[in-house]
Amino acid sequence: MLTINSNLKKEIWGRATYLTERSTDSSFINDVGENKAILWSKRTGLHSLNLLDFRLKEDNLSYKDFLSILSNSNPNFSSDKDPEWFKILKSVFNNNCDIDITDNDIDSLERKKAPFFNITIPFLKWSKNYVINQLNVFKNNFKHFPILENNLLPSILQPVYQNLLSLSCQTLILELNIKRIHQELIGSTKEDRFNYFISNYITEPNDILTLLKKYPVLGRLMVTSMKNIVHSRLEALKHYLNDYNELQNKFGGNFTELISIKGNVGDVHNSGRSVLIFSFVSGEKLVYKPRSLAIDQHFQEFLSWINNKGINPQFKTMKVLDRTTYGWQEYIETEECKNVEAVKRFYKRQGGYLAISYLLNATDFHSENIIASGEHPFFIDLESLFQNRLPIDTNENASQIASTKLMNSVLRTGLLPVSLFKSNFLQGIEISGLGGYKGQAIPKSVYGFVDVGTDEMRMEKKQFYLEEGKNRPIMNGKAIRSEEYIGEIVEGFRNLYKLFIDFREELLSENGPISLFKNDQVRAIIRHTQSYGSMLEAGMHPKNLKDGLMRVQLFDFMWRIVKQIPKMSLVVSSEHKDLLQGDIPSFVTKVSSCHIWDHRGKKIENFYDQDSYTATIKLLNELNDQDYEEQIKMIKTSMTTMIKKWDSKLAYRDPMKKQVTKIASQEEFINAAIDIGERLERKAIWSADGKTVTWIGLGANEHDQWLFTPLDSSLYDGLMGVSLFYAYLSKQTGIKKFENIARASLNSAMEFIENDDSIKSLSAFHGYSSAVYGLMHLSNIWSETLLLKKAIQLLDKIEPLIEKDVLFDLLSGSAGAIIVCLRLYSLTGEKKALTIAEKCGDHLLKNAQSLEIGCGWSFNIGAGHEPIAGLSHGSAGIAMALVELFHLTKNKKYLEKALETLEFERTLYNKKERNWTDIRFLEKRQELGLETPVQWCHGAAGITLSRLMIQKYYKDSKIENEIKIGTDTTLKKGFGGSHCLCHGDFGNLEVLLLSGLELKDKFLREKAYEYGTKTLLDARKNGWFCGIPQEEETPSLMLGLSGIGYGLLRLADPYNVPAVVLLEPPVNHF
């Protein structure tokens, strides 16, 4: 067995080096190196971007150097001098000092909870020894040494071992399982074999080194992490000792006996530095930040200026001590509000902060950056003030222009709930400063440990949920919801907005409070932190820890953004270096500068087109009544997104009781649809070239959350739905401009669809199937076979998503995809469409849950749903799809499962209400006095529609009876809410219209037109009511105006305008 010194030979650890650290020899180039270079360039996208030479130049390398490095299978350090990490590695494993890790350092119970703790012991010993030596130096150098060492030491060692385990766990689990599979572990039980692995492979220093030799990059990263944590804590400690007297004077507390320094507050930047909390025997705390706090200090002065102008309620300021490269901040404790009036004042202040954040171009004020201390909100991370915009290509499409419009509004602050697009990395979670409610399922599953302490220990994806933040006021132990105080938020915003206008000249003056910020340093946010986090996570996969070049190649994927934003080529090299260090990349700028700097001091000149100070002054000059009204609308609309669907009961109207003397004519229905088309046209956002168009609106995602965004590509509340409305409007009226809008809307939708990262779903209303459905109709309306070919090509996108589908239903899952694929098969004869429909059907059968009576599907939405009734998410929609699949395939297994789930759905039938119980949030709905819905999406209306479709291919007396019951219930209870298709009058009119047509029932058809006329008269008097909270308007098909317009066209010509709510095929096939 090799000795420690043998395992620490320099030539062994050459593979831990990165691209720029390896020796080059241009005379040593072979085919292996050239093939590796080609593969590297193709994998990362550098080849297609023609960026490889530029990327290499950023690292002071030529292409020949690159080939030389890749040709060498035994890499060497580029310098004879050992790099720092290697020196420390040797020191860690040649540590002869008499140091032990005691229970005082790391509690024994805590060690037992950490299954691979032993691997950290050599690193902890080195850290402890180093810290003790440095503390002794501090004792000799400083007059005051108010530190309780025995208490302080564990707070430094704890993050060391936690980070080391975080880095190494994935690799250790892999090694454990390899040795289990190869039967190299001894023991009669799983636990014994696990303990054998611990004792024989990661306890003795030489055994640890032997393992790390196999993964040399891991060894390097563990050393770097340890060094960074220890050095950053000691650096902060030295600053505390330097500032000791000034801290006492500035903050006025008892900071005389330091007992701990706690980290993990915020992201890690600049060689492991992060925000730290200093705790003292007195119980008091101080916040240390490793950056300039000039921006924080000047913000407090700005608040004082506002207070002096007589604002009510006043803002409470916090104490700040800026030391240029670092600083200290008052620790804010959470406190409860004493009464409702205090809560009101809290939200008035938040409205004021919203106006301040808007004026000062703030972003990123999400829930973690705000602390509610009684009736006072405190903003604790102010380096996201005066944020600049990334330079974007001037040839923006309509969606980019719409996003820019939102980003130039009050929504950019992060205080309000908003999503630029439904498909971003935080899809399904709301983390705004005014929201961020606990219990939300975090969309991205996180790996957790399973079978800990056994030789079958492994990592599996687990669902985690957002915890309660500190950003909302507490009263009587309960967090108060901000959506209940929209009026106070608006009032606070109005008061500050008016104050800024009234004192505009003073604010604009050279001696005004805004000029104080001119030279302050702020963070330049280049990408979302989550993007960097995902890269760092991928970089810890064992395959990337065997050779440093694998990590370099992985991080070269960061260059791909240059295709969308060319100027990003100036910063990727800096991002790359930070990621290799294990840091979240960071850049800074100055408020009055267009330049940015990385943390190594590299200056990227004129990265921005305009500095933030100029942008703020420009905005200040442009404040006016019109802008105020626009921002208020944004506030109100975005706040409605926090209202739950079951909590969004619209004011009930009953226009159906009124008698009509004359049924509306076809022309009247069409004219009303034209009015809606022109109304939407006025709200449209166009690209400069007129080729793309979009709208901003309130919609819902697959997690049943409201979102305020530019429209995405979907049928439900996106561009495909709007395009369908305009296409049919043009067809019915012959008005050319409506066709132009439909085509521009389709162009915008296709930009989403052709972006591989944009859509993650097979949904018939939200995903790729919705695009297939829309293209089928548009190709038919315009007689363009190319669109039909595009629909067929999209089948390749749907197929890989089948196994990933956990929603299953008509609206969002495989059931809807079945129907769309069957429509395409019937239209084109494309066999792949039928194959995919069958695969979706088999996926449903495989995931069906057997119940006491029948079967159903548990939907993975948020915390999960039990099987439910209904068309959109329940058994009715799934049964409808399976019956149609049976009809085309003649495979009885689909029919049998459909009939089974109908039996389950019948168990939810309520005879008294003559409706099917909606068990979603049942207790909450009952508490709010909400009846069982009668809607397309949930309840009798949608269930009736499903039975009408099923009856085409399978008839029995139960289905006939359910159609009668459902139709009767819809007539009596289904009208007077909103006018939308999803849960409003036009969706329910489809029950009457389709029943009249399919059953040849004259009474029901006449009722459809009678109720349609009443709805039209109601709208002429009171306006159209979309299916969203707060009586706002939205452009979408299923929730908004385009769907209402489509419903009017359907009434005007039901034989040529198909029922989109049932995914009916186009008519008059060309």
Query: Which class best fits the helix and strand makeup?
Result: alpha+beta
Helix content: 40-55%
pLDDT < 50 runs, ≥5 residues: 646-651
Mean pLDDT: 91
- Based on Cα principal axes, name the global outline: globular
Name the strands of the widest sheet in spatial order. Answer: 1-2-3-5-4
Largest sheet properties = 5 strands, antiparallel
Number of E strands: 23
Number of helices: 38
Radius of gyration: 32 Å
- The portion of residues forming beta strands comes to 5-15%
Measure the end-to-end span: 78 Å
Description:
This protein has 1070 residues and is α+β, with helices and mostly antiparallel strands. The protein is built from 38 helices and 23 strands. The protein has a five-stranded antiparallel β-sheet with strand order 1-2-3-5-4, with helices on both faces. β14 (596-598) and β15 (603-604) form a beta hairpin. α8 (149-181) runs antiparallel to α11 and α34 (940-950) packs parallel to α36. The longest helix is centred in the first third of the chain and has 33 residues, at 149-181. The radius of gyration is 32 Å and the shape is globular. The termini are far apart. The model is unreliable at 646-651 (pLDDT under 50).
Lay out the secondary structure:
Blueprint: H1 4-7, H2 31-44, H3 52-58, H4 63-71, H5 84-93, H6 108-113, H7 121-141, H8 149-181, H9 190-201, H10 205-214, H11 216-242, H12 244-251, E1 258-269, E2 273-280, E3 285-289, H13 294-308, E4 320-322, E5 327-330, H14 340-359, E6 370-373, E7 376-379, H15 398-407, E8 446-450, E9 458-462, E10 474-475, E11 478-479, H16 486-502, H17 504-508, E12 521-523, H18 529-539, H19 548-555, H20 572-581, E13 587-590, E14 596-598, E15 603-604, H21 612-622, H22 625-640, H23 666-683, E16 685-686, E17 693-694, E18 696-700, E19 706-710, H24 719-733, H25 736-753, H26 768-782, H27 785-793, H28 795-798, H29 814-828, H30 831-847, E20 849-850, E21 855-856, H31 875-889, H32 892-906, E22 909-910, E23 915-916, H33 922-927, H34 940-950, H35 957-973, H36 985-998, H37 1002-1022, H38 1041-1052
